């Protein structure tokens, strides 16, 4: 089984060919192809982690869609003062499908 650990959106994700991964919003249109930098490559028993060898590795993914995450409600409240504040937040996300690890 071949899989790679890639850096995407400030986090590290474990991906293999055919996986759908949700990342922070990327500046790419749906259908576009992007490359993700590999940090580790596992090919069966062989593990590659040297920077010079990983520079040759390309992890290619195709942008499936741009979407918004679930709403997070932020509430602030102070007792006995009448202060309360409510705010919402939805993250901008991109769903990608890994097409190749070479």
UniProtKB/TrEMBL annotation:
This protein binds to 23S rRNA in the presence of protein L20. PANTHER family: 50S RIBOSOMAL PROTEIN L21, LARGE RIBOSOMAL SUBUNIT PROTEIN BL21M. Keywords: Ribonucleoprotein, Ribosomal protein, RNA-binding, rRNA-binding. Belongs to the bacterial ribosomal protein bL21 family. GO terms for biological process: translation. Part of the 50S ribosomal subunit. Contacts protein L20. This is Large ribosomal subunit protein bL21.
